[in-house]
């Protein structure tokens, strides 16, 4: 038994001339192959059309379209071939073939010049490799920024001038004591600590408006302490030339600035200290001689008549008082210059601070000034001279009182308070004296630690209180700093190394730096 495909002509071919050329099996195969090729050729462009419609980002879409047209034309010639088995249509067949030939030649001619550009297109594997490399580079940059000691931040500038924090690195969070989460996308006015926002934002706005890079230095009291930082702010423009972002990097220069100020101060004091030591030495000789002769004169006056003896005693008391004042001054100058030997030891800083506070508080109460003392729990051990620290505190508290009184003279309703805060901060004991007084005039801020500098009336100030306090702090391995408080008044900060932290310099308490 034979299959319909094997050994028999298809019925519609029996009468055509086709069967005279091929065997029936080949004729079936020919017909079915043409149909299969034709239909497949129509299906492939359909797929290409879907790709063209869905992937608008394709390179050379016109080439894909031309290729689809070529495949359609080829498919139609095959279907035409199948059709001519049923009914020969030589004119249509030839026309179709001619059109297909034209399209084929066009595609062939077009493809060759495009070939180099096609070869230059990156393959998916190359693109993937590039993406991976970029990702790795981004990760490297991310790790670098995360470990950078400098604070880096990006701020978005909206067209209406509004600023928005886009991202910050961990150093930014550490330096300015702000939690990282919630910062991205936030308005800087509300997200940053007020002192930082108040000082930095006007500069950020200026760079956004003017479009020029800016470098600035700011000092402010942040939750982590008093900080000085240097910032470089660069505007980043978009395609339309508008400043779209600000890229900033900030470096903590607190330690450097302190060191520089300390060096300048030390250099000044070294000169003044030598002068003072010489002066004190020279002055002590005549003072001692004058005291000796006063004692002798008193002894000789015993033989005078009563009235003259009384007059002499009054005059001698005045001279003695003046000699004592001069002697006190010489002693203070000697201790300022480090010429006085000091008893150095380990003691609780709270004790001399509290003793000075008690003395000052009773005087201040009489003036209607409120004084408060806040101290951390537990002892705060430091190394040096307790007596010298107490004297330094007395000087600071007396100055605070004077500043408050001076302010009240012009503004009777101004607040009258002095706060003393004693705390431990990492390896240091920090004593702060904050007053609501007149504040330190900007013009003299650099001079207040100089010996004999005073803005007080003659007879009220001699300008040795702060140099003495600063010298006491240095002798204990610490420092004294001062600045004005935002709301008015001054803030003096005495920082001493914690004795337990092992940062006590050799010879502490004896000789100032
Ligand atoms: P004196 O008190 O004898 O003037 P100081 O060395 O103690 O000497 O102070 C020097 C100067 O520093 C003062 O004259 C004053 O101008 C300024 N000063 C010190 N403490 C304060 C303060 N708490 N507020 C404002 N100014 C101050």
Name its key features.
disordered C terminus; disordered N terminus; alpha+beta; 513 residues; 53% helix; Beta-Lactamase; 4 domains; 12 helices; binds adenosine-5'-diphosphate
- What kind of oligomer do you see? single chain
Stated plainly, the CATH topology of the largest domain is called Heat Shock Protein 90
CATH class of the largest domain: Alpha Beta
What is the strand content? Answer: 15-25%
What's the architecture of the largest domain, going by CATH? 2-Layer Sandwich
- How many domains would you count in the coordinates? 4
Small-molecule binders here are: adenosine-5'-diphosphate
The helix/strand class is alpha+beta
Report how far the terminal alpha carbons are from each other: 122 Å
Low-pLDDT regions: 1-6, 501-513
Average residue-wise pLDDT: 87
Radius of gyration: 47 Å
Q: Give the helices and strands as they follow along the chain.
A: HHHHEEHHHEEEHHEHEEHEEHEE
The major beta sheet can be summarized as: 5 strands, antiparallel
Q: Portion of residues in helices?
A: 40-55%
DSSP strand count: 12
Shape: rod-shaped
Can you describe this structure?
GO terms for molecular function: ATP binding; protein histidine kinase activity. Keywords: ATP-binding, Kinase, Membrane, Nucleotide-binding, Transferase, Transmembrane, Transmembrane helix, Two-component regulatory system. The chain crosses the membrane at residues 35-53, 60-83, 95-115. It catalyses: ATP + protein L-histidine = ADP + protein N-phospho-L-histidine. 53% of the residues lie in helices and 18% in strands. The chain is built from 12 helices and 12 strands. It has helices spanning 24-54, 61-86, 90-120, 124-147, 170-176, 188-191, 194-210, 254-301, 306-336, 350-366, 386-410, 465-475; strands at 151-157, 163-168, 214-222, 225-237, 243-252, 345-348, 370-375, 381-384, 417-425, 428-435, 479-484, 490-497. A 5-stranded antiparallel sheet has the order 2-1-5-4-3, with helices on both faces. Strands 7-9-10-12-11 form a 5-stranded mixed sheet, with helices on one face. Bound molecules: adenosine-5'-diphosphate (ADP). Residues 395, 399-400, 403, 435, 437-440, 444, 448, 453-456, 461-467, 490 line the site of adenosine-5'-diphosphate.
């Amino acid at each position: 038994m034979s299959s319909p495909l094997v050994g028999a002509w298809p019925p519609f071919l029996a009468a055509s001339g086709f069967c005279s050329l091929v065997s029936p099996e080949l004729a079936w195969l020919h017909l079915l192959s043409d149909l299969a090729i034709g239909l497949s050729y129509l299906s492939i462009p359909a797929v290409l059309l879907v790709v063209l419609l869905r992937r608008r980002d394709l390179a050379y879409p016109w080439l894909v379209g031309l290729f689809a047209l070529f495949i359609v034309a080829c498919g139609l010639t095959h279907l035409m071939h199948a059709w001519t088995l049923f009914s020969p249509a030589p004119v249509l067949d030839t026309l179709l073939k001619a059109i297909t030939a034209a399209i084929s030649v066009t595609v062939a001619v077009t493809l060759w010049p495009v070939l180099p550009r096609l070869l230059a297109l990156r393959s998916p594997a190359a693109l993937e490799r590039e993406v991976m490399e970029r990702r790795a580079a981004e990760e490297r940059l991310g790790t670098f920024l995360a470990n950078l000691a400098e604070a880096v931040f990006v701020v978005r500038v909206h067209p209406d001038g509004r600023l928005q924090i886009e991202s910050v690195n961990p150093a930014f969070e550490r330096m300015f004591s702000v939690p990282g989460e919630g910062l991205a996308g936030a308005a800087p006015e509300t997200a940053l600590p007020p002192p930082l926002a108040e000082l930095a934002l006007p500069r950020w706005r200026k760079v956004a408006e003017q479009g020029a890079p800016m470098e600035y230095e700011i000092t402010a009291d942040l939750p982590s302490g008093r900080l000085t930082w240097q910032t470089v702010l660069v505007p980043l423009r978009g395609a339309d030339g508008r400043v779209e972002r600000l890229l900033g990097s900030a470096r903590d220069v607190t330690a450097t600035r302190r060191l520089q100020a300390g060096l300048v101060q030390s250099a000044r004091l070294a000169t003044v200290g030598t002068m003072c030591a010489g002066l004190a030495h020279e002055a002590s000789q005549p003072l001692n001689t004058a005291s000796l002769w006063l004692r002798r004169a008193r002894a000789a006056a015993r033989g005078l008549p009563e009235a003259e003896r009384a007059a002499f005693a009054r005059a001698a008391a005045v001279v003695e008082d003046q000699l004592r004042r001069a002697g006190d001054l010489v002693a203070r100058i000697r201790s300022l210059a480090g010429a006085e030997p000091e008893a150095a030891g380990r003691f609780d800083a709270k004790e001399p601070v509290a003793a000075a506070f008690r003395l000052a508080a009773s005087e201040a109460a009489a003036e209607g000034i409120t004084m408060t003392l806040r101290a951390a729990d537990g002892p705060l051990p430091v190394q040096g001279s307790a007596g010298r620290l107490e004297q330094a505190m007395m000087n600071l508290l007396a100055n605070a009182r004077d500043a408050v009184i001076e302010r009240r003279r012009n503004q009777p309703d101004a607040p009258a308070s002095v706060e003393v805060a004693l705390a431990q901060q990492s390896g240091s004991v920090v004593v702060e004296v904050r007053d609501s007084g007149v504040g330190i005039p900007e013009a003299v801020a650099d001079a207040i630690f100089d010996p004999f500098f005073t803005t007080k009336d003659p007879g009220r100030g001699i300008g040795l209180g702060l140099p003495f306090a600063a010298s006491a702090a240095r002798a204990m391995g610490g420092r004294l700093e001062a600045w004005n408080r935002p709301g008015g008044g001054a803030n003096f900060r005495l920082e001493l190394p914690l004795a337990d932290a092992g940062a006590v310099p050799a010879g502490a308490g004896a000789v100032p730096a």
